[in-house]
Amino acid sequence: MQSDLELVKDTLAGREQAFELLVQRYERLVRATALSIVKDRHLAGDIAQESFVRAYRRLHTLREPAAFGAWLTRITHRCALDTATRRRSELPLEEGLAEAIEGRNGHLEEDQQALLAAVMRLPTGEREVVMLRYFDGHTVKDVASIAGRSVGTVTKQLSRAHQHLRIMLEEP
Amino acid sequence: MSSQGNIEKKLRELGRAVGTDESLSRAVMARVREEPARSFFRDHKTSIQRMLWRFVMNRSTRWAAAAAILVIAVLAVGFWGRLGSSAYAVDQTVQALANVRYMHIVKYDRAGNLEDERWEEIAPNGFQARYRQNTPSRSFYVVDDQQTVMVYHADKEKNTVVLYDPQEKSYTWHYDPAGMFHEIAEGKPAYAVVAENVQYKGRPAHHLRGVAGDTDVYIDPQTKLPMAIGDYEISYEEPPQGTFDIAIPEGAIVVDKRPGAEPGPEPLWMVQEREKKEMGEVAQSYFEQGRRALAAGDCAGAVESLTKSLEISPGRNWAQFWLGRALCESGRYDEAVYQLSRVIELMNEHGMSIPSYYLARALAYQGKGMTAMAQIDFEKALPKMIEGLRNSEAARSFDLADDPLRRADGMKGQDCHDAPTPQQSRIMMVNRLRVLTGQNFGYDPNADEQEQERAIAAWEQWFKDSGRMQFAPDAKLLAVPPATEAGSL
């Protein structure tokens, strides 16, 4: 499994396929980040696309390529907030649009929204490993390779994330 | 199942619900390939130049830089030692906010121009007392001195002051820090500490984030007061003299709406805005009439009412959609295609794509005999329809588009329908697919998940292998159970 560091370097060296692998690797994380803000799957898909393109444009400014995931999350967060703000303040449709948004097949169940909100409240490192491990089904070893951390660190971060989520979700 | 196992299961389910879409990476890569390479490499070159500059720094320069960094580090350690010695708790902010008398709130645009400014005086009971708002970006100004609320619409075409009784009209900043932090004190987890002792615009700060992930808050470690919420920066100094004084700008038209005052004639723009609002209500009324007519099979009546609604208030997407459908059901396919194309474009302009709108236009094209165009639209809708068999959420736009009386958009009345249950929604989708594709692949909504998945996969494969729209009006349809029964399935 190639690390983010290697894929970012390859992309900067002009190998587009490396960026495509990053897109596939982080699609769920980016969608989830967008969805936690705009609560709508279609819109989250649009935001995901825009976030990846923005990330590509600014990739050369990324100081720590190994921290690509956290950096991408920040870009997505900003992009989703911009979209949400624009949607609130600029759309002239208002009532009609509100109905369309309601009708767009893109809402998570209430408890899933709560879980997603809790995941988004996790510290950056924990959030990233949780998403890679459970959303994308990577093994702990793969998560460690992707994020450039040791298996021990990833295991500890997952364990802490479980504790945090239990508290936030008031699980026994 | 253990608690950990339970959370893991829920996280995996959430991951599946978030979903992926093959087309995303294709779309991103298509855009990436369109990126002008020269701008990318120019920026990249700048970055390389910076690296080179670092590399060619001579030894003495590097020593000087290292010494400077060391001095800064020593100073910083002392600074943090004073500020960050004890852990921050949000309760400290609640206490600090209780003593706030004034808030000065500002927001700048990307160019550094003042976009919005508020001054709030807080009464001893914690409520807002006097208030001032300067929003030059919208030429909008407000002063509330607790006796009168003055609203000044400053753009040249308006240049109007409206005076209100504070009981009738009030303004406030949409964030309410005291309320927000009070909620935390009451145990509502509105904000979580992200990091202590970070930097915010060159100043030490603690970083909090809203539970919903949409607002960042920075706390001053010394005063424990919020220094920034969202894009707004906050300070707590006393305002300049006269901040809350009401002063009518020279030359402004004055409309006095306070009780007992002589209001005077309203300027034209106010009359027009009021009429627009009233007309919006009329448009809504026609919209509702049109939906009811369509539901009752009175397509001509629906076309008439929905056309009137759109004449008064153009840009209502659902009015446009129902009009398209009513025209289609009347056999007026050319007009239906036109109206449905307009609403599809309208949604695209807002970055949205509603699959059920494409399906409706596919049917209109089919009615016109333009099967190739119908197939293109059909292919846009079909993947979402199949997805609707797995996830009833994906079927929602189709459910809405099938039922003009679906309760939404403020539509009230006993004849309105609530959203179908997930089971009803899946059965309705199976029926749509059976009629439109002529296939059924043995999908049984009551079968176990594995069997259902086999049928869905077969439908997906059929679509991949050039599945074509194929009407089967005689297809066997499943009975949709009533809500109570379906809910219990």
Radius of gyration of chain B, in Å, reads 31 Å
Mean pLDDT across every amino acid position of chain B: 78
* C-alpha termini separation of chain A: 36 Å
Strand numbers in spatial order across the main sheet of chain B: 7-8-9-10-11-1-2-3-4-5-6-12
**Proper CATH architecture of the largest domain in chain A:** Orthogonal Bundle
Q: Please identify which CATH superfamily of the largest domain in chain A we are dealing with.
A: RNA polymerase sigma factor, region 2, helix turn helix motif
Topology-level CATH name of the largest domain in chain A? Rna Polymerase Sigma Factor, Chain: A
How much helical structure, as a percent, in the residues of chain A? over 70%
Q: What is the number of E strands of chain A?
A: 0
**Approximately what portion of the residues of chain B adopt beta-strand conformation?**
5-15%
Low-confidence stretches of chain B: 37-85, 485-489
What is the domain tally of chain A? 2
Overall geometry of chain A comes to globular
Structural classification of chain B: alpha+beta
Query: Helicity range of the residues of chain B?
Result: 40-55%
Largest interface: A-B, 72 and 68 residues
Largest sheet of chain A: none
The CATH homologous superfamily of the largest domain in chain B is named Tetratricopeptide repeat domain
Mean pLDDT of chain A: 77
Task: Explain what you see.
The complex is a heterodimer of chains A (172) and B (489). Chain A is mainly alpha-helical and 172 residues long. Chain A contains 9 helices and no strands. Chain A folds into 2 domains: 1-107, RNA polymerase sigma factor, region 2, helix turn helix motif (Rna Polymerase Sigma Factor, Chain: A, Orthogonal Bundle); 108-172, Orthogonal Bundle (Arc Repressor Mutant, subunit A). Chain A has helices at residues 4-12, 16-38, 41-58, 68-90, 95-103, 110-121, 124-135, 140-147, 151-169. In chain A, helix 2 crosses helix 4 (68-90), helix 2 crosses helix 7 (124-135) and helix 7 crosses helix 9 (151-169). Chain A starts with a helix and ends with a helix. Mean pLDDT of chain A is 77; it is low at 89-106. Chain B is of the alpha+beta class and 489 residues long. Chain B folds into 3 domains: 36-83; 90-235, outer membrane lipoprotein receptor (LolB), chain A; 275-488, Tetratricopeptide repeat domain (Serine Threonine Protein Phosphatase 5, Tetratricopeptide repeat, Alpha Horseshoe), CATH 1.25.40.10. Helices cover 50% and strands 15% of the residues of chain B. Chain B is built from 16 helices and 12 strands. A 12-stranded mixed β-sheet of chain B has the order 7-8-9-10-11-1-2-3-4-5-6-12. In chain B, strand 9 and strand 10 (226-229) form a beta hairpin. The radius of gyration of chain B is 31 Å and the shape is globular. The two termini of chain B are 24 Å apart. The model of chain B is unreliable at 37-85 and 485-489 (pLDDT under 50). Chains A and B meet through helix 2, helix 3, helix 4, helix 5 and helix 6 of A and helix 1, helix 2, helix 3, helix 9 and helix 12 of B.
